[in-house]
Amino acid sequence: MFDSLLKLIPGRSKPEAAAADAVFQVDPLATLVLPGAEPFDFAATLQVVQGLPVPDWTEVRAWVGSLPDPAAQAEAWARAELAWLAHLQAALGPQVHVARHQHALLLSSLEPRVAAATVQFMTKTLARIEKVLEGVARAPQWGSDILLVFDDPETYYRYVSRYYPDDGEFAFSGGMHIHFGCGHFATFAAELHAIEPVIAHEMTHACVAHLAIPAWLNEGLAVNTERRLCPPGAPQHTPQQLHWMHQHFWTADRIQEFWEGRSFLRADEGNLLSYDLARILTEQFAADWLHFKAFVHGAAVEDAGRAAAEQAFGVDLGKTVCALFGFDASDDWSPRPQCWQGQPERGAFSLAHGRLGPGLALSSPARPPGLTQPPAQASLSCSLTSSSAPTTSSARSPSTRR
C-alpha cells in the first residue's frame, strides 16, 4: 500500500542506509540550552492530557522572541520542536521514532524504510503544491512540517481530543491539520492506505494559511489539490447519487451554513456534502486560472467571497449553486452574512474532515428530515465535475525555513 512512497527512496541498493540516515530517536530534554541565552525550562511548559504531552507554545514563543538574533531564534524553535517530539515519543513507547527530510518531521512507529519514504513524500508534496497552485499557494516560511502517525485510532482520538469542544457530535476523520501553537498534522496507522492524500490535503491548508479566505474555498482548494496529486480510487458514491443527495439536502437556509462554514462541522451527510460542494465550486472556477487567482486573493471571509466572485467572474455564488443542482435561482441562496449565527469560519478545520464517509459520527445523529438513502441511479441535470482541472494547478514558528 506504500509502493508509491517507497519509490521515492533514493539508492534502492542501499535502502537500509537511507532509512538509517532519516530515522532516529531523541532524548527528551527537560531544559533547552543555547549559547548566550538563559536556559529554558521546557519540561515546565508541558501540558499532559490523557497521558500525551504538548508544550504551552505561548511560553515557548515568548522565550524564542526574547532572543535578539534571528539565527538564534530559528535554532531555538527547531530545538523546541524536537524536544516536544522527544517527550511525545517517550510517552508513546520505545517503538516510536522520528524521521526527518529537509523541513519535514515525522513521529511514528512506521518501519524505517516507510518512515524515510514518508518524509521524502512530504518534501516532494510541498513543492508540487506550490506548482499546482501557482500564484495562490505559498510554502510556510517558519518551522517544520510535522506529521504525527499514531498506532491506532484510539491513541489518535486521545491526542486530538484536546482540540475538540467539550460538547457536540463530530464526524470521524482520517487526519487533521492542527494549527494551534506549532502547526502540525496528525493521522493514524489504520489509515496508512490514505496517508498520501491526507498529507497532500493538510499541507495544502498550510500553504494557503496566509490567505484570509472563506472556509468553502479553503477546503475546496485542499480537496482538489489532494485529488490532483493523489488521484482517488473507487468512489463511495456515483456522481448521480451525490447529485441526488445534494438536491435533497441543500435548502436556502442550509446553504447559509455552507457559506458561513458551519456545515463542514456537521456530524451528518452535511459534512460530506459540504466538502463535495466546495470541491465542485472550486473546480468550476479554477478552470479559468487567471481570473481564479484574482478571485482567491480577493475572496473575503466576511461575505464568503461573494463580492470577489462577482468582480472576477461576473457571477453570483448562490445562483451558481442553484444552477448546479437545478434549483430556481433566488437571492436567498447567495451569502447573507446578516443571517449567520456567529463569526464565519476560515476552514482548515482542526475538527474532523469526514474522510471515512458520510453519516459517521462519534455519536449517531438523526438523519436530516426528507433525506433517505439515494437511489442507485438518478437523473443528472448538471455535471458534478468540470471537464478541466486547474490549468496550473496557524501560526508558524520564528524559525526561517528558506
Summarize the structure.
With 402 residues, the protein is α+β, with helices and mostly antiparallel strands. The chain is built from 14 helices and 10 strands.
Strand-helix topology:
Layout: H1 3-6, H2 15-22, E1 23-24, E2 31-32, E3 40-41, E4 46-49, E5 52-55, H3 57-65, H4 70-92, E6 97-101, E7 104-108, H5 112-132, E8 145-150, H6 153-160, E9 176-178, E10 184-188, H7 195-207, H8 215-229, H9 239-249, H10 254-260, H11 269-286, H12 289-298, H13 306-313, H14 317-325
Parallel strand pairs: 7-8, 8-10
Antiparallel strand pairs: 1-6, 2-3, 4-5, 6-7, 9-10
Outline the structure in words.
The chain has helices at 3-6, 15-22, 57-65, 70-92, 112-132, 153-160, 195-207, 215-229, 239-249, 254-260, 269-286, 289-298, 306-313, 317-325; strands at residues 23-24, 31-32, 40-41, 46-49, 52-55, 97-101, 104-108, 145-150, 176-178, 184-188. With 402 residues, it is an alpha+beta fold. The chain is elongated. The model is unreliable at 1-13 and 350-397 (pLDDT under 50).
Report the uncertain regions: 1-13, 350-397
Biggest sheet: strands, sense, closure? Answer: 6 strands, mixed
Count of DSSP H/I helices: 14
Q: Write down the secondary-structure element order.
A: HHEEEEEHHEEHEHEEHHHHHHHH
Question: How far apart are the termini?
Answer: 33 Å
**Main sheet: strand order:** 1-6-7-8-10-9
Shape: elongated
The average pLDDT is: 81
Q: Could you tell me the number of beta strands?
A: 10
What structural class do the secondary elements suggest?
A: alpha+beta
Helix content: 40-55%
Content of β-strand: 5-15%
Rg, nearest Å: 22 Å
